[in-house]
Specification:
Blueprint lengths: L4 H9 L3 E5 L1 H7 L17 H7 L3 E5 L5 H17 L4 E3 L3 H9 L3 E7 L9 H10 L3 E3 L22 H10 L5 H13 L2 E3 L5 H10 L5 E2 L16 H9 L3 E4 L3 H4 L8 H15 L4 E3 L17 H10 L4 H22 L2
Parallel strand pairs: 1-2, 2-4, 3-4, 4-5, 5-6, 7-8, 8-9
């Protein structure tokens, strides 16, 4: 795809902050070196492609399954920052992302993908904060701890009636989940509701005193997947000052294979902006956490800029999408910390 001079200049200007990336845990799972420097064509992400796509920063998944895994996943962040200081820096504050842009580096933002491994301990949450945790997904769609019936949201499609039933009939936050949201607010950790089931979504977004994010997911109206947000959920996210990161998994984009296209991915961005406004929509690729993403890797990010310009979006809106909105939430959460 040809990229216009306007698109190239705008893309170079943008702070491109990706709300979710699974590269380190994917290397860990394959028992391969946990680094993204050099070329790794069997993965979606490596340093050359991040550079080519203009990535400024991304949320790095640093734990979900158990505490041992989580601690191991912190190591590649520290190793990249220490061993490749010209390329990477650790992000602890919003200003670090701006510094990454100014210094032509890539910011690594630690993000857990659920709190299950914390064993209901706020002490562990506080220790992870001291290590650098700044974004925390509450749950990865776990089964209800008391064995009550709940929807399986992993890789499944559903109906609007299923979503309403999930909101009405199933369990919401556990007592630890409620305490964790409050402690995250106090510490200045961004509450991330990606993967959170419907009842817990509504409960958490009302409980949080600071704006929340939905780091990677799309619009349920365009693809009836459990992991996408309904219009009601999107509007509540807007009303609470939050941001959704439009994501690349094929099933999030469309239910039928023939419609899982780049343009349909852009449709989700457009739909969300038109529904809830350009202050509440960002980018959360989920690279290396899905198969055959659309678009397939960071080198296609300039094409997203071009396609958004082609659809008539202003430069200001595109800059908000690429990083301005996630940065705003990050800043508000840090300013509200005690």
């Amino acid at each position: 795809m040809e990229i216009s001079e306007q698109a190239r200049e705008l893309h170079d200007k943008a702070v491109i902050y990706d709300g979710h990336n699974d590269s380190f845990i994917e290397h860990w799972a394959r028992k391969e070196p946990m680094e993204i420097v050099g070329e790794w064509p069997e993965y979606h992400v490596d340093l050359p492609r991040l550079r080519a796509g203009g990535t400024t920063a991304f949320n790095c998944m640093v734990g979900c399954g158990d505490l041992f895994q989580a601690i191991e996943l912190w190591d590649p962040i520290f190793q990249h920052v220490h061993n490749y200081p010209d390329d990477f820096l650790l992000v602890l504050e919003p200003e670090d992302i701006e510094r990454a842009k100014a210094e032509d580096k890539i910011g690594l933002v630690p993000q857990v993908e659920c709190c299950r491994f914390m064993n209901r301990s706020l002490r562990i949450l506080r220790v992870l904060y001291e290590l650098g945790l700044r974004v925390a997904i509450l749950t990865h769609g776990e089964e209800d701890p008391d064995g009550l019936r709940s929807p399986d949201i992993s890789g499944r499609f559903c109906t609007p009636a299923d979503r309403e039933r999930a909101r009405r009939d199933y369990l919401g936050l556990t007592e630890f989940g409620k305490a964790a949201v409050q402690e995250m607010n106090r510490l200045g950790i961004v509450v991330d509701l990606a993967h959170t089931k419907d009842a817990a979504y509504y409960e958490a977004i009302e409980l949080s005193k600071t704006p929340v994010v939905f780091s990677h997911g799309n619009c349920f109206t365009l693809s009836h997947h459990w992991r996408n947000l309904t219009d009601d959920q999107l509007k509540l996210l807007r009303d609470k000052g939050g941001v959704i990161g439009i994501s690349c998994p094929r099933s999030f984009i469309a239910e039928d294979e023939e419609n899982r296209t780049f343009d349909r991915f852009i449709d989700h961005i457009q739909y969300a902006i038109e529904l809830i406004g350009d202050d509440h929509v960002g980018y959360g690729s989920d690279f290396d956490g899905t198969t055959k993403p659309v678009p397939p890797d960071p080198t296609y990010q300039p094409q997203i800029t071009q396609k958004l310009l082609d659809r008539g979006f202003s430069e200001e809106t595109i800059l908000k999408f690429w990083g301005g909105n996630f940065l705003r939430v990050f800043r508000e959460v840090r300013e509200a910390a005690e």
